[in-house]
């Protein structure tokens, strides 16, 4: 990959939208960005081939056009079954119609892939601080599958979705598996909407819903389980706390910490009912626009805690700073409950 890759991509991108922060992006991300952009659009390869094409500038334009037309027709014939190809090749009108149809389909697919590539570039720029420094290239098989899905992205929303997937993979290779790509290509709108709705309730890979909510939304939750996005509907699951030396359990999201005590004042073998994201669900949730803070999420968790007869009390605190497992939080709780 050439050292001036940024300039090449800027000049190749239709909108020239590559952000000014390109120099801040790790080299591995830059290289994967070029690799994926070229696979979808072919613009980098065409740009690098410009010098070779200039060498043929003395060739008559009419001869060039005729050669291009013949090559396009030959490719169409190669894709057709032999008997049909023989028939079409003997009929200029049929040959012309087949060529126009094939080229039209190829144009639409390329237009979709170009749009996805542009969305990915935009997302990479916006999220450049969330990037891996590793220098490995993208998996070629992954790119092949991704390209086949991207060429079907006709709507703006779908193009944005696939663009975010590509951006995530470019910034963190291995973030999105092939099963996740396959599910995204097959998921229906109703299932997708249900998943977006419950995604805001996730705390890590766990989602805490009280019994009443799960009963009222059973069909939607079952649909998500059947789609391979969550577990814990047909077979109830729970978060298990098993620290013998601790007297309270902790559940934390990005903003709040819940401290939980039990009747025996120990948390060994404490189980709290929960629904869990599958690996695919956890991958998809990374590209969903979720509200930063959902008060209803904590309210549902509180209902779950109150349902659990082993729990005697809890307090909820606002997190001031979070660095991995190290938490700084306000000592005065914003909410508390004590079983009487």
Explain what you see.
With 340 residues, this protein is an alpha+beta fold. The protein folds into 2 domains: 5-186, no CATH class; 189-338, no CATH class. It has 15 helices and 10 strands. A hairpin with a 2-residue loop joins strand 8 and strand 9 (326-329). Helix 2 (27-41) packs antiparallel against helix 7 (92-126), helix 7 crosses helix 9 (156-171) and helix 8 (140-150) runs parallel beside helix 10. The relative contact order is 0.09.
Topology diagram in text:
Blueprint: H1 5-12, H2 27-41, H3 43-48, H4 50-54, H5 61-79, H6 82-89, H7 92-126, H8 140-150, H9 156-171, H10 178-186, H11 189-199, E1 202-203, E2 206-207, H12 211-216, H13 218-226, E3 230-231, E4 237-241, E5 249-252, E6 256-262, E7 270-277, H14 279-284, H15 295-307, E8 311-323, E9 326-329, E10 335-338
Antiparallel strand pairs: 1-2, 2-7, 3-7, 4-7, 5-6, 6-8, 8-9, 8-10
């Amino acid at each position: 990959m050439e050292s001036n890759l940024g300039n090449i991509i800027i000049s190749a991108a239709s909108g020239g939208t590559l952000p000014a922060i390109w120099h801040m992006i790790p080299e591995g991300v830059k290289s994967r960005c070029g690799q994926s952009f070229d696979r979808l659009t072919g613009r980098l390869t065409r740009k690098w081939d410009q010098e070779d094409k200039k060498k043929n500038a003395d060739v008559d334009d009419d001869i060039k056009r005729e050669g291009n037309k013949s090559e396009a027709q030959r490719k169409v014939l190669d894709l057709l079954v032999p008997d049909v190809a023989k028939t079409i090749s003997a009929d200029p009108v049929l040959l012309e119609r087949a060529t126009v149809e094939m080229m039209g389909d190829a144009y639409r697919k390329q237009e979709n892939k170009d749009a996805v590539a542009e969305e990915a570039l935009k997302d990479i720029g916006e999220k450049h601080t969330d990037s891996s420094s590793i220098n490995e290239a993208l998996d070629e098989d992954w790119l092949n599958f991704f390209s086949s899905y991207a060429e079907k992205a006709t709507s703006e929303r779908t193009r944005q979705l696939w663009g975010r997937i590509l951006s995530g993979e470019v910034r963190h290779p291995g973030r999105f598996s092939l099963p996740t790509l396959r599910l995204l290509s097959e998921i229906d709108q109703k299932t997708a909407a249900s998943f977006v709705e419950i995604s805001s309730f996730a705390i890590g890979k766990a989602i805490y819903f009280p019994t009443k909510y799960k009963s009222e939304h059973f069909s939607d939750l079952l649909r998500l389980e059947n789609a391979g996005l969550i577990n814990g509907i047909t077979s109830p699951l729970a978060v298990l706390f098993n620290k013998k030396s601790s007297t309270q359990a902790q559940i934390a999201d990005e903003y709040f910490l819940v401290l939980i005590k039990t009747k025996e004042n120990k948390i060994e073998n404490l189980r709290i009912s929960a629904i869990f994201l599958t690996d695919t669900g956890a991958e998809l949730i990374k590209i969903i626009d979720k509200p930063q803070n959902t008060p209803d999420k904590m309210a549902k968790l509180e209902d779950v805690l109150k349902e659990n007869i082993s729990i005697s009390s809890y307090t909820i605190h606002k997190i001031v700073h979070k660095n991995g497992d190290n938490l700084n939080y306000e000592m005065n709780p914003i909410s508390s409950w004590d079983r009487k």
